[in-house]
Amino acid sequence: MGRAVSAAKHRAGWLKQLHTWHWISSAMCLVGMMLFAITGITLNHASSIEAKPQIVQRQLQLPAELLPLVHATSDAADENKPLPAALQAWMGRTLERSFDATLAAEWTADEIYLAQPRPGGDAWLRIDRRSGAAEYESTDRGWISYLNDLHKGRHAGTAWSWFLDLFAIACLVFCITGLLILKYHATHRPSTWPLVGIGFVLPALLALLLIH
Predict the structure, then answer these.
(1) What is the pLDDT along the chain (212 residues), one digit of tens a residue?
(2) Of the candidates 92, 87, 88, 95, which has an alpha carbon nearest to the alpha carbon of residue 59?
């Protein structure tokens, strides 16, 4: 009798702990899971969602004091390195946007090319190393494209990459604790494992039979 009571208390304590982990992880995942569910639909129907990119183009001329920073020398070789700080500062003020100081540009004998991909759009800057003439183009594909790129972690930076990893861990805790809670309640709910099985078998059959 005492052993049965002890087992029941142990089971109740473990179930309470699982419920605690389950609701905490669900609270942490709630907004993120809604975002990923919505963007899962928009990504799945990306070809059906009309997007009207907004493109901004600028023609610039570097001031005389900055020309020595870009002028090519006779022994110039192709390399990848960030823009000089003074050039970044001038570009930032002129274009009214910030530049990533660590982003490497492509330096060739004739030009400097800097690609600036970002979620929901991209931009590029090209500078003629002889004349100092510069072209800039920025494309904004809208907020749906922005959210889709966040879903994929595309060009979103290190901080967002870490967030995705932590979010995935929280989702795993939510799912695993949910599965263990189902196990504890399955005795009194006969449909538990058939429903879990459907959740596994259905996508497996679709993948095996209909995806080629």
Answers:
(1) 556 667 677 777 888 899 999 999 999 999 999 999 999 999 999 888 887 899 999 999 999 999 999 987 655 667 899 999 999 999 999 998 888 888 899 999 899 999 999 999 999 999 999 999 999 999 999 999 999 999 999 999 999 999 999 999 999 999 999 999 998 888 888 899 999 999 999 999 999 998 87
(2) 95
Strand, coil or helix: what is 8? helix
CA-CA distance, 135 to 183, in Å (whole number)? 62
Torsion angle in degrees (nearest 10) through CA of 109, 106, 55, 155: 180
Query: Which H, E and C letters describe 144-181, residue by residue?
Result: HHHHHHHHHCCCCHHHHHHHHHHHHHHHHHHHHHHHHH
Helix (H) or strand (E) holding 112: strand 111-115
Q: Which two tokens stand for residue 9?
A: 């208390």
Is pTM beyond 0.90 here? no
Instruction: Provide the terminal-to-terminal Cα distance of the chain, rounded to the nearest Å.
Output: 59
Query: How many CB atoms lie under 10 A from the CB of residue 145?
Result: 20
Distance CA 95, CA 140 (A): 15
Rounded Cα distance between 130 and 113, Å, is 14
**What is residue 12's three-state secondary structure?**
helix
Residue among 70, 77, 157 nearest 112 (CA): 70
